[in-house]
Design brief:
heterodimer; A: about 110 residues; B: mainly beta; 6-stranded mixed beta sheet; 5-stranded antiparallel beta sheet; 11 strands; globular
Chain lengths: ~110, ~110
């Protein structure tokens, strides 16, 4: 059972470039979310989805887009990368939006130069 | 802004000792969760405690929740070198489904 799979593991972008971080889960979880982790700041919620076709903004959504066309996939798009988006990005899923533990992927380390 | 704040930020203990870390939060919650993160890896869920529960155990882990003080504690008993990790509390708010994480406690267990 793969759980939550994130690709790529590492990425370097130049300022202004765009890219998509991939996230897939094979647990038939309804809820999926994206967090970024910066030193000393814990994890901050970027976007989340409670089911296919439904997405909503978290705490730090600016500069990112998401879509949820299937239950399994929840890609995160950086529209025009900025150095402030240098971070480690985690995708997570849970069976329900409430009272359920999150299952995390192993993260994507992104550097924007 | 962070809903949960862990204390201390870092903790260094000898193998076999107990480790205690605390989490304070600001608003009403449905539940509070604790996660562990090993270096370079994703977070792993440890325990979920609901707002109507006061204590929960899982193996060597003990979590308490005091909703009147808006605080929780995680106790790791008889620590092992493999417990070296960062530990995060996360709160599931009473309104909405945005699990919010604190900044974490870094625990070093020395052999």
């Amino acid at each position: 059972n793969a759980g939550v799979t994130q690709t790529p593991k590492f990425q370097v972008l130049k300022t202004g470039q765009s890219m998509t971080l991939q996230c897939a889960q094979d647990m038939n979880h309804e809820y999926m979310s994206w967090y970024r982790q910066d030193p000393g700041m814990g994890l901050r919620l970027i976007h989340y989805s409670v089911g296919a076709g439904i997405t909503d903004q978290g705490e730090v959504p600016n500069g990112y887009n998401v879509s949820r066309s299937t239950t399994e996939d929840f890609p995160l798009r950086l529209l025009s990368a900025a150095p402030s988006q240098t971070s480690v990005y985690f995708c997570a899923s849970s069976s329900t939006p409430y009272n359920s533990p999150l299952h995390f992927g192993n993260g994507t380390r992104l550097t924007v130069t | 802004s962070q809903q949960g704040e862990e204390d201390p930020q870092a903790l260094s203990i000898q193998e076999g000792e107990n480790a205690t870390m605390n989490c304070s939060y600001k608003t009403s919650i449905n539940n509070l969760q604790w996660y562990r993160q090993n270096s370079g890896r994703g977070l792993v869920h440890l325990i979920l405690i609901r707002s109507n529960e006061r204590e929960k155990h899982s193996g060597r882990l003990r979590v308490t929740l005091d909703t009147s003080k808006k605080s929780s504690s995680l106790l790791i008993t008889a620590s092992r070198a493999a417990d070296t990790a960062s530990y995060f509390c996360a709160t599931d708010p009473a309104a909405g489904n945005k699990l919010t994480f604190g900044g974490g406690t870094r625990v070093l267990v020395k052999p």
